[in-house]
């Protein structure tokens, strides 16, 4: 992740639908897509990307609601 310009914040093994969760920050969605594609292309994992909003972002989102 670092070589692509992002930062791996944490890695968690979890129970349930997913075996592991990675929390990462990237300067943009393209960097994160490259990371997911590079990881998935190795053939031993499947990835699913979820966008998370920090407090400032979600407050701005809900402030625009009618």
Task: Provide an overview of this structure.
The structure is a single chain. By secondary structure, the protein is α+β, with helices and mostly antiparallel strands. Helices cover 32% and strands 20% of the residues. It is built from two helices and two strands; from the N terminus they run E-E-H-H. Strands 1-2 form a two-stranded antiparallel ribbon. Strand 1 (7-13) and strand 2 form a beta hairpin. The longest helix has 12 residues, at 29-40. The chain is globular.
Q: Please state the structural category.
A: alpha+beta
How widely separated are the two ends?
Answer: 39 Å
Largest sheet: 2 strands, antiparallel
Radius of gyration: 14 Å
In the predicted model, the low-confidence regions spanning at least 5 consecutive residues are none
Number of helices: 2
Instruction: Write down the overall geometry.
Output: globular
DSSP strand tally: 2
Give the % helix.
Answer: 25-40%
What is the structure about, briefly put?
With 66 residues, the chain is of the alpha+beta class.
Provide keyphrases for this structure:
20% strand, 66 residues, alpha+beta
Ordered list of secondary-structure elements with their pairings:
Blueprint: E1 7-13, E2 20-25, H1 29-40, H2 55-63
Antiparallel strand pairs: 1-2
């Amino acid at each position: 992740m670092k070589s692509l310009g992002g930062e791996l914040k944490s890695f968690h093994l979890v129970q349930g639908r997913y075996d592991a969760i990675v929390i990462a920050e990237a300067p943009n969605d393209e960097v994160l897509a490259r990371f997911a594609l590079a990881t998935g292309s190795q053939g031993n994992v499947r990835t699913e990307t979820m966008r998370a909003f920090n407090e400032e972002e979600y407050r701005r989102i809900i402030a625009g609601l009618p």
